[in-house]
Amino acid sequence: MLVSILMTLIAASTPLLLASLGELVAEKAGVLNLGVEGMMLCGAVAGFAVAFSTGSTGFGLVAAAFAGVAAAMIFAVLALSLMANQVATGLALTIFGIGTSSLIGAGFVGRTVTRLQPVFPAALSEHPLLRVIFGHDILVYLSLALVAAVSFFLRRTRPGLILRAVGENDASAHAIGYPVIAIRYAAVAFGGALAGLGGAYFSLALTPMWADRLTAGRGWIALALVVFSAWKPGRLLLGAYLFGAVMTLELQAKAAGVSWLAPEVLAMAPYLATIAVLTMMSLGRRTGRLDAPACLGKPFSAT
User: What is the spatial distance between Cα 7 and Cα 9, in angstroms, rounded to a whole number?
Assistant: First the structure.
């Protein structure tokens, strides 16, 4: 039972980790993109449509990443080049993603595809105990590797320090010759690619079939996780798995035969936890806002 719980927890946490890690990089560059839910849905429907049409989940993952980037570029053009309000543009992107995914996915409702398969051989991936480590698909291992890579990139590399400088003081970064807008475009594109892959994880791994609004608001949890982690990749990993555990409460309660608590209450648990965490951080002496990049959400013009 413990092995089963851990497998479910890891699977539930992976899309949150992917989407929130991409948003963390974008916010480190000073861009507040609230359209994570919309980008996830674009990735989910694109990944499913391509996987269903070609029979290849690999092609589906590539399509999901490109769809996430395409949606992110809509936001980038409006918010970075045209200097539209980032909060309003992000919300509009979410609405756009919901509508687009519903339109494209209308012909795929109820259809199924082959689930993403474990990376390692069956001797390891189906072992009663070792499958906790070796029984996962490529996106699980990719998400963990990306946490280490992003942490190293932001802390130990020159491009990472430049990206952080753009997020902390864009005017100074521009004054010494760094292309602020181009760097922010790249950060937003990276966030879109990971959000697209996070969305595709729902349609290609968790529930390999298409249903309208498949992500069920997980993009908003991903946004809260960035604040919860204080913009640190290591804490983000912990937070994603913590929220993943909360999200699996409903399934585990049903498996344990718990009937005295309404399933609707358990389904609300991750969203209630999100509100509780953000409330506690805002009431504390050191709020999440104080840890945020100084230029987060502020428009920048090179002229």
Answer: 5
- CA separation for the pair 191, 188 (Å, rounded): 5
> Sign (positive/negative) of CA torsion 82, 86, 89, 90?
positive
Q: Distance between CA atoms of 243 and 247, rounded to whole angstroms? A: 6
Tell me the pLDDT band of 288, cut-offs 50, 70 and 90: very low
Residue at 259: amino acid letter: S
What pLDDT digit, counting tens, does each position of 63-95 carry? 999 999 999 999 999 999 999 999 999 999 999
Cα–Cα distance for residue pair 16/201, rounded to 1 Å: 10
Cα–Cα distance for residue pair 41/150, rounded to 1 Å? 24
The label of the residue with tokens 């290609």 reads: 204
Domains along the sequence of the chain with CATH: 2-291 (1.10.3470)
Listed residue (23, 2, 10, 39) closest to 142, CA to CA: 10
In sequence order, the 6+-apart residues with CB closer than 8 A to the CB of 157 are none
CB 208 within 8 A of CB 215: no
